[in-house]
Specification:
The complex is a heterodimer of chains A (201) and B (307).
Chain A lengths: L1 H30 L10 H14 L9 H13 L15 E9 L5 E4 L6 H16 L3 H16 L7 E10 L3 H6 L4 E11 L9
Antiparallel strand pairs in A: 1-2, 1-3, 3-4
Chain B lengths: L3 H13 L5 H21 L3 H5 L9 H8 L9 H10 L4 H21 L3 H18 L6 H15 L8 H5 L7 H27 L8 H8 L8 H4 L3 H16 L1 H4 L3 H22 L2 H16 L12
Helix pairs in contact in B: 2-6, 2-8, 2-16, 5-6, 6-7, 7-8, 8-16, 10-13, 10-16, 11-13, 15-16
The chains are: A alpha+beta (201), B mainly alpha (307).
Amino acid sequence: MRFQRAYLIGFALHFFLLVTVASRDFFAVLADGSSYLPAALEPHWRVLEDATFTVLGQKLPPNNPMRETIAFYLHAAGIEAGYGYFAPNVPYSYKLVFQLTYPNGTTEYELPSVGTPETGMRLPTLLDFIAANRYEPLRQLILKMLAYSVWQHHRDALKIRAVFGAVITPSMAGYKRGDDPTYAVVCAYDFGFTKTKPPRP
Amino acid sequence: MKPIPRRWQQVHDWFFGGTSDRWLAALRIGLGLQLVLYCITSRGDWLQMFTLHPGSFVTRDLTEALVTLGAALVPRVSWLMSVGEFIGLSEATILWVVWSGLLAAGLCLIAGLFCRSAAIVAWFFHLSAIKSSALLSYGVDNFTSIGLFYLMLSPLPDHLALDSRWRKWPPKKAQLQSFWQRVLQLHLCVIYFFSGLTKLLGSGWWNGESLWRALTRPPFDVVPSEMLIHGRYLFIPLGLGICLLETSYPIFIWPRRTRLIWLVGIIAMHGAIAVLMGLYLFGFIMAVLNVAAFGINLFRLHGKKVI
């Protein structure tokens, strides 16, 4: 009986954390104003979201042992994120296009290349992260890494322009009217690359 | 009002009432298959996903720095890399050792060989891999992680595992079998409830636009838009149907009368996501979790009670 009680207490803690994380993301959606609920309620949702941060120890200093322990447990159990996939509405997708410029002035366009279709399904996570990230140096760094991976296959290119934008697919009514998807540029960066000479023997 | 001791007894009986271990066999085999498929499908990009060398999508150190910002104890590939480098292995070799370890753990889980060790290795390697490639992870990794976490803690081996048959390991307590199955069942209820409720708050799920956009959003636009538009009248009922199916899952998955309907509905939804959006691994893991949690007891195929 004693071991069963221990199991139940462990489950209660686990379930509490699971529901708190799910609630945190749920309140975040409501507080962002992306639902159709009245905007007047948004500050209240923000308070509730804030409360879940407190419960999960996310307001403690980053190296606080309690915060670290809770964070480890959440990741270990796979419950660190909520379950609002494609909700409340399906977001726009993003696209990254590389414009390669060669020494003779010609240009060529490339998309991020992956080896398998499964990795292709994973790329939207990266693109969504770039879009959501407002810290300019980090966004630029990630785009430079991606541009460099493209340059590996086009080492004659002098310059690569990374153009990152949102793909706005037409609504059903728009599609029936004959509207095409449009591409709204979010940001663009130029990266210069030069081939390093092999060291002299 | 029922007296507290009686309520406590009811809760206790609900969790520890005892059940066969067929659900655990389904979870073990399903997760083993999922890991094998994960290894096979990611093989072509494995090095590029984890290497530190420039030329990868996003270098491992950057991803790990982002993930571990508030969670320094989370396992990651760099830990395995440090151990490998200590014994003189190159980065590529270590990454392939991790890949092979995951594959071997998946195969062992399918066969039921060294179940507990395989489950722990699978959980650790998989968690390390998805955290070190977090910018390329999506829902499927999260759900595999959840499944592996429960599998690792569950009373392995089940009676179908080779460990039980060849090595004559005694079956585990039926009480613990039912406890861990209940945990998985309740977790799925939370997942679908919040998923459905959040969808219901978006106008797009009421007018069919969200379903349309989900199916036409690159790279999930497997079915051409000109074909999808023919089924536009179905988008409103289907979108609302998905919301209602998910939100009411915690209610209708329990009674025997409605369980089959909800289970088939949910698995059909994940099957449709797999086929229409190309998310095969995601569809598969969700089917595995649902069948293990609620499906096994529906099918009494020569079932024998272990204890």
